[in-house]
Amino acid sequence: MKKLWIIAANTFTETLRQPIYAVIIISGLILLTISPSLTMYTLDEDIKLLRELGLSTLFLSGLFIAIFSAAGAITEEIETKTITTVLSKPVSRTVFVVGKFLGVVTAVGLAHYILTLAMLMAIRHGVLSEAADTHDWTVITAAAVVVGTSFLITAFLNYSYDWNFTATGIGLLAGLSTLAIVFLIFIDRDWKYNPGNNKFTAFDIHASILLLLAVVVLVALAVLFSTRCNVVLTLTFCVGIFLLGLISDWIFGRFADTYMWAKIGYMLVPNLQVFWASDAIYGSGAIPFRYLLQSGMYTLLYTAGILSFSVALFQRRQVG
Question: Which residues are within 8 A (CB) of 77 and not within 5 positions of it... i.e. 6 or more apart?
């Protein structure tokens, strides 16, 4: 068990140090920052479109972080032969695969957390759909303080103590963003103590949790393909299954009772539409807690199956 956690911790640390990890997070933050401006000309649907754009950003960011992180954690070690050193400790291949999965999931979860906080800030700011609307300077100030402070402290620690810039910056960003959200929970747009007017809803939290569950499934798939494929093929297969999973009901579901191929496809391809809350945005605007539990069970069972298959494939691969 100790070896499992060591591999997971090392994978988590190495993932945070990858430049692509920070690039995807920064890209997501930029898109979330400008999202209120992108949705300001949609009449009565502005805040709903803002939510959908925010959730889409979370989903796509999680997808690409999962792919590149899994490829970096497994494919590169196989191609550079450094995996032979790890497996000669000795470390079983099962422990290696599961440890890599846990490390990547933790890193992806951290990125998802940061982007979720940014989405909540964007929703709190709202859309300036009318000339009389004004900016929420509490949100703008909090975000500016978080970004500025994170950059300055990270630069100091990197220069003075040679701390890794990417990993340190991401860690500070997560911590300071949490403090900013706590501040915004209690302080309204007029800089007054008013926790009842913070515009944060359970729906946004639940929708983010659902997407995190979807990303866990995508990480498991990325780990599966990384044990056998290079980065390009892993990216291709994961994006393909991602797109297929979003329309699984339409392609396989409606034929599952009639055709065997549809039934098999419906069982094998993850139904990512389960995790997408777009219908609730334009409908009831609520996600029952029971639905979260059911989605969590689906994620657990599907992920366990994929990891078992990953271990079986990896057992047969020559890595020396």
Answer: 83, 86
